[in-house]
Design goal:
Layout (H helix, E strand, L loop, with lengths): L1 E7 L12 E7 L7 E10 L4 H4 L20 E8 L9 E4 L6 E5 L4 E2 L17 H13 L7 E4 L5 H12 L4 E6 L2 H9 L5 E4 L5 H8 L4 E6 L3 H10 E9 L20 H4 L3 E4 L9 H14 L6 E5 L4 H9 L6 E5 L1
Parallel strand pairs: 8-9, 8-11, 9-10, 11-12, 12-13, 14-15
Antiparallel strand pairs: 1-2, 3-4, 3-6, 3-15, 4-5, 5-7
Helix pairs in contact: 2-3, 5-6
């Protein structure tokens, strides 16, 4: 069958541009034994994909020029050559950036439909971003009841969940940073953050100190740069940092200076710990059980910014890097 896919046309230098992507037609064979043909319904664009556009050694292989990009997707089985999968099954897999995919059944996970909830939730609150927030806060940062928590990029897919989980787990204070006054209002009025600030309105360190005058115990870091430096300044002794990402530096063309106050990590006995969500896959059942329960009970909420059609997937990705999304950025195919 004929289908369409987005390929990497060239490697970006600095900020990606539309010319780095190519929308192309492709011909797919039918599924062989042990494979399934899937029609993608939704695909995900995520900040980590920017790193895969560079030809550098990392924890995940780089995208290849002339080949389709990859990423989380959820779709329905159109044709199955594998036992246990039949037409109409809803599956989660990693061959996004295309309208159809043929893949080994072992690389697809059947997921149940959740009444009243879009299947795209498996790309966000019940998927990789949700697990990142859940394991990052509870396991990596070793959150405990009574901790004061600061989350950067708090209106994004991961940050918005990390803050809500902290609140539901008994944080003494939850503070978030975001890039617009509207997002700040969203954090406080809809997600229940105790305080939030627009990092564009002044030095992050000063705004954080006003938002958390008694300091913080946990920092969930999605930004790095000035946010990490500000958090180190505000962290109480034995504070912990879950280093999830550093989006402030993803498109930099020159080496960026480290936080200038790293020496405080010694005197305060801080723990700064990086993590990759795939290392915490065993926690997925706990996420589905606990966060899924909160979702059904209306105790947790999530937002999506939805782009329509494969043609708009590159622009959705660029908009994500510019911080134009609230919650999870999704492309509906």
């Amino acid at each position: 069958m004929r289908t369409r896919e987005i390929r990497l046309a060239s490697r970006p230098t600095g900020w990606p541009e539309p010319g780095n992507f190519d929308l192309a037609e492709a011909e797919l064979p039918g599924p062989a034994e042990g494979q399934v043909l899937v029609r993608n319904l939704f695909m995900s664009v995520d900040p980590y994909m920017r790193g895969r556009m560079n030809d550098v050694k990392s924890y995940v292989p780089p995208f290849q020029i002339g080949r389709p990009l990859e990423g989380g997707a959820i779709g329905e089985v159109v044709e199955s050559g594998a036992p246990g999968f039949q037409k109409g099954d809803l599956v989660l897999h990693s061959l996004g950036w295309r309208e159809h995919a043929v893949l080994d059944a072992s690389a697809a996970r059947k997921v149940p439909e959740v009444p009243g909830v879009s299947p795209s939730a498996y790309l966000g609150v019940l998927g990789m971003p949700g697990l990142t927030a859940y394991a990052g806060l509870l396991d990596v940062a070793e959150f405990k009841e009574g901790d004061a928590v600061f989350v950067s990029a708090a209106a994004g897919a991961v940050g918005s969940l990390a803050g809500q989980i902290a609140r539901l787990k008994g944080a003494s204070r939850v503070v978030g940073s975001a890039g617009s006054d509207a997002k700040v209002a969203y954090l406080k009025e809809e997600l229940g953050f105790d305080e939030a600030f627009n990092y564009k309105n002044g030095p992050v360190a000063e705004q954080l100190q006003r938002a958390a005058p008694d300091g913080i115990d946990v920092y969930f870091d999605n930004v790095g740069a000035d946010h990490l430096e500000a958090a180190i300044e505000s962290l109480n002794p034995f504070g912990r940092v879950a280093m999830c990402g550093a989006i402030a530096n993803y498109n930099a063309t020159e080496p960026q200076p480290a936080p200038r106050n790293l020496v405080q990590c010694v005197g305060k006995r801080l723990t700064l710990r990086g993590f990759i969500v795939s290392d915490h896959a065993a926690r997925m059942p706990d996420l589905i059980a606990e966060v899924g329960g909160w979702l059904r009970e209306g105790k947790i909420t999530f937002a999506e910014t939805v782009a329509e059609g494969l043609d708009n997937a590159p622009e959705a990705f660029l908009a994500l890097l510019r911080g134009e999304n609230t919650g999870k950025m999704i492309v509906r195919l």
